Amino acid sequence: MKITxxxxxxxxLTAAAALTLVSAGPVQAFPxxxxxxxxxxxxxxxxxxxxxxxxxxxTVTLYKSSITHKKCAITxxxxxxVGKTSYMYVELFVDRNGNKKYDDPDIGVANGSExxxxxxGPVYASADHxxxxxxxxxxxxxxxxxxxxxxxxxxxxxx
Length: 159
What we know:
The protein is mainly β. It contains 1 helix and 11 strands; from the N terminus they run βαββββββββββ. The protein has one helix spanning 13-18; strands at residues 2-6, 21-24, 27-31, 40-47, 58-65, 70-77, 85-94, 107-113, 119-126, 132-140, 146-149. The strands form 3 sheets. It has a 5-stranded mixed β-sheet, with no helix packed on it. It has a 4-stranded antiparallel β-sheet with strand order 4-5-6-9, with no helix packed on it. Strands 2-3 form a two-stranded antiparallel sheet. Strand 2 and strand 3 form a beta hairpin. It is globular and about 40 Å long.
């Protein structure tokens, strides 16, 4: 079992250039993060699991590229919670042996930090025609982490 963690301590000029600003009408625009390159959206799930107030704290989204043969995941915070996060992360697991369990030679990549205020990720993995599962989590202030991702941790999106 191999897990690789990437944690960004600061934003580089390249990362800053990759950010996309989204206009949200009268609400201030904020960086959303993006998978660099030719990626198409596959699925997006709300981050609501564990939210005592029943609200959606953000989304975790999976993208794929038929050119690079990779999949990419990003966690994004919902507009009302921008700047209120105390921790965010995203993780992406690839079922390389096709048994829909997490064991050798499967891989996992994750990205998280208490410094993230808008998004976590992107994380990338070679996963052409391989099943994945992915999760995102957001903590607002001192509240517990709220999760979202592939339903019940199922291996999905095998194309």
